[in-house]
Specification:
The structure holds two protein chains of two kinds.
Chain A: E1 3-18, H1 29-41, E2 50-65, E3 69-73, H2 80-87, E4 95-101, E5 104-107, H3 120-130, H4 135-149, H5 164-176, E6 182-186, H6 194-209, E7 213-217, H7 221-227, E8 230-235, E9 238-244, H8 245-258, E10 263-264, E11 278-285, E12 296-298, E13 303-311, E14 318-326, E15 331-336, H9 337-340, E16 349-357, E17 365-375, E18 378-392, H10 395-400
Parallel strand pairs in A: 3-7, 3-8, 5-6, 6-7, 12-18
Antiparallel strand pairs in A: 1-2, 1-4, 8-9, 10-11, 11-13, 13-16, 14-15, 14-17, 17-18
Chain B: E1 3-7, H1 15-21, H2 23-40, H3 46-66, H4 76-103, H5 105-110, H6 117-143, H7 155-179, H8 183-194, H9 205-211, H10 213-219, H11 223-236, H12 245-270, H13 273-276
Helix pairs in contact in B: 2-6, 3-4, 3-6, 4-6, 4-7, 4-8, 4-11, 6-7, 7-11, 7-12, 9-10, 11-12
Classes of the chains: A alpha/beta, B mainly alpha.
């Protein structure tokens, strides 16, 4: 069989600038000019903050045969998204080479380019064009797309009036009907309701079985097992292994238990660009005992972590909080300092906030931890996937019969029966 | 089937064929922006008409009545409008295009396509406004009984020159704005300032008469000078509007330099857009 994708020694480097307050990735013309002016008068080498190289991907090589469905797993910051971005030509490699045989369609986000003012019909054409479809092709598959999305009645309504479910359905439908030899999908299924997710997974599997090449990134192990026979496992930008999915998942879970508890938050992607008055730097697990420092907690045991952050400019009425998300992207539980212990104004400096949850009620499974700092209704810094945590079953959970409960959370409840 | 090779530092290959392949995206994006523009503003298309009319009235009053500038041959209002239309096209292209990559940041970081399409399609939106507003010109000429001669046939050429000037500048601004995000604070000032160095409310002749030949050539370094001179001549050549061909020549050269260098700068920085935006 032909090779569809060949990757040789692929690396991608990002330059991180550790500068003063409110860091962003772009430079201000003002800074450049003042630096230039300052360097005219000083002999010192120009230091616009510390520069640090960060290899998001390092020496990755693999081959994917035509018609294969390959999953990609790895923790946050392992380079999954970078790999997909390189393969979809959004960004260019620092070194290495990629050969792609066939038309490639990448779906790194559902609904890219959708415009709220345009109607469903207009958005189908626009989104199709953005994804690289020809007008004739969209026309041919138009009815199919509409049927899949179940939005017939609202075709001529601006999508700003759509419910979020309808919006997602329509967006996924367009992408799912792309006629390409290679399909690249990034965690897009982490949206929408359960029924829709099932439908998407079904569609993905059909695509995988129709002889097209599929690359699929997900935290959802169940979906990976169902869609991809083989997986690539990335660790800190390097390819750890490429093997049958169940072997890779086993290795991944094993590594997980021993993973060091400290996470560098400063390089993780931000969900929204906050106002930059503070930035989260590090996250550490406060786990004790056998799994000390890991992100693997026993069912019913207290969950603890500490986040270190730097305040650049004073923050009035700060609110710091966390949420747990399911691997399918549903927000399960959430709380902030506002609910438990309102904080006073934070002066510039470095802080550490310890968060201890005596009884999380989370059932065994995999969850994502999101962290956020906000003030007066504005986001300061917000990370959606700070880390993944694993709640493992133990005697208590077996005794309680937790494995018979489908919901992710089993709240501690006092039942009182009255009667008869 | 097509083989795509991506190699570090070698993305040049196939750029122009890609651009051609993505031509439909270009049409769709232009169409989207035009549609959204006319859907969002309550008065829609009228906006494209009202803005130049109000500017024309104000400039006619200030320069024609208050300052008493003469208008070599054409009725003053027609002369002013012939300067207002190209200038507003140029100015709105600059403003729109310089923000275009930032407004479409989401697309840049999630989808591959030749990035050139974004600023180019944003210029097209301003160009549509310009074409619509040409109707005002026709009405105004009918009102003042200005009958154009064969010179009118050259109007598309000057329009093209204006279009190239807009695209060239837009490429520079769009790319610079991604890298230096405070650039957008400079731009409105440049646009505001530019109107005084462009013969919008007065004929270019005034500059030559007042300050001589050299100053007039320096003045023509502003690419819109040649475009506007051309516009006035195309409309009023028959009724005696003089033509300064040297200004057009200078404009053509300046536009060529801006467009070629803009394209090169854009191409050189393009691949880093997704990383820094």
């Amino acid at each position: 069989m032909n090779v569809a994708i060949r990757v040789e020694n692929l690396s991608k480097k990002y330059v991180l600038r550790h500068q003063l307050a409110g860091r962003s990735r772009y430079v201000a013309l003002r800074d450049v000019l003042t630096h230039k002016a300052a360097s005219l008068f000083s002999r010192k080498p120009e230091s616009s903050g510390k520069r640090e190289d960060f290899w998001a991907l390092k020496d990755v090589s693999f081959e994917i045969k035509e018609g294969d469905a390959i999953g990609i797993i790895g923790r946050n910051g392992a380079g999954k998204s970078t790999l997909l971005k390189l393969l979809s030509r959004i960004t260019v490699p620092t070194t290495g080479r990629i050969e792609i045989e066939g038309r490639i369609a990448s779906l790194l986000e559902v609904g890219t380019g959708f415009h709220p003012e345009l109607t469903g019909r207009e958005n189908i054409y626009l989104n199709g064009a953005i994804l690289g479809m020809q007008r004739a092709e969209i026309k041919k598959r138009f009815d199919e797309i509409v049927a899949f999305a179940e939005v017939e009645k609202f075709l001529d309504t601006p999508v700003k009036h759509f419910s979020s479910g309808m919006y997602m359905r329509l967006a996924f439908a367009v992408a799912a009907h792309l006629e390409s030899e290679i399909l690249i999908v990034d965690e897009v299924l982490a949206v929408g309701d359960a029924a829709f997710q099932k439908k998407c997974l079904g569609k993905m599997r059909d695509v995988g079985q129709s002889g097209r090449t599929v690359l699929f990134v997900s935290h959802n192990m169940e979906a990976l097992v169902r869609i991809c026979p083989r997986c690539i496992y990335l660790v800190k930008g390097r390819m750890e292994m490429m093997d049958e999915t169940r072997h890779v998942i086993a290795e991944y879970s094993a590594n997980f238990k021993h993973a060091a508890g400290e996470i560098d938050l400063s390089t993780l992607p931000r969900r929204f660009e906050g106002n930059g008055n503070a930035r989260m730097l590090r996250l550490r697990s406060l786990q004790e005992g056998e799994n000390a420092g890991s992100w693997c907690y026993e069912y019913g045991a207290p969950l603890g972590f500490a986040v270190e952050f730097e305040v650049h400019r004073p923050i009035e009425e700060p609110i710091i909080g966390y949420s747990f998300f399911s691997t399918t992207g549903m927000e399960l539980v959430s709380t902030t300092t506002l609910q438990e212990r309102p904080l006073d104004r934070l002066a510039p400096g470095r802080y550490q906030l310890r968060m201890i949850i005596p009884d999380s009620s989370l059932n065994p499974g995999t969850y994502m931890l999101a962290l956020g700092i906000a003030t007066l209704g504005r986001s300061v810094d917000h990370i959606l996937d700070a880390t993944q945590i694993e709640i493992v079953p133990n005697k208590l959970s077996v005794q309680k019969g937790i494995d018979k409960i489908w919901a992710p959370v089993t709240p501690h409840t006092v039942f009182e029966l009255i009667g008869p | 089937m097509s083989l795509i090779v991506i190699e570090a530092g070698k993305t040049e290959r196939g750029y122009w064929t890609d651009l051609w392949r993505y031509r439909e995206l270009f049409f769709f994006l232009s169409w989207r922006d035009i549609l959204v523009r006319y859907k969002q503003t309550v008065i829609g298309v009228l906006w494209a008409v009202i803005r130049p009319i109000l500017t024309m009235i104000a400039l006619t009053f200030v320069f024609g009545k208050l300052a008493g500038v003469h208008s070599d041959g054409l009725p003053f209002a027609v002369m002013v409008l012939a300067g207002t239309l190209p200038w507003q096209f140029f100015a709105s292209s600059m403003t729109e295009a310089s923000n275009s990559l930032i407004t479409n940041a989401n697309m840049l970081s999630k989808i591959y396509f030749p990035r050139l399409i974004i600023p180019a399609s944003s210029v097209i939106v301003s160009f549509m406004d310009f074409l619509v507003s040409l109707a005002i010109m026709a009405v105004l000429m009918a009102w003042y009984r200005v009958l154009p001669g064969w010179q009118l046939l050259t109007l598309p050429l000057f329009t093209l020159l204006g279009l190239f000037a807009s695209v060239g500048i837009s490429l520079w601004l769009a790319a610079l704005n991604v890298k230096y995000r405070d650039f957008r604070y400079v731009l409105p000032f440049v646009v505001q300032f530019g109107v005084f160095f462009t013969p919008v409310g007065f004929p270019s002749e005034v500059v030559r008469q007042k300050y001589g030949e050299t100053a007039s050539h320096l003045f023509s370094l502003n690419p819109m000078v040649g475009v506007i001179n051309g516009f006035r001549w195309a409309i009023g050549g028959r009724v005696g509007v003089p033509m300064d061909w040297s200004s057009v020549l200078i404009s053509v050269l300046v536009v060529a330099v801006i467009t070629v260098s803009g394209l090169r700068y854009f191409r050189a920085t393009e691949e880093t857009f997704a990383d820094i935006i």
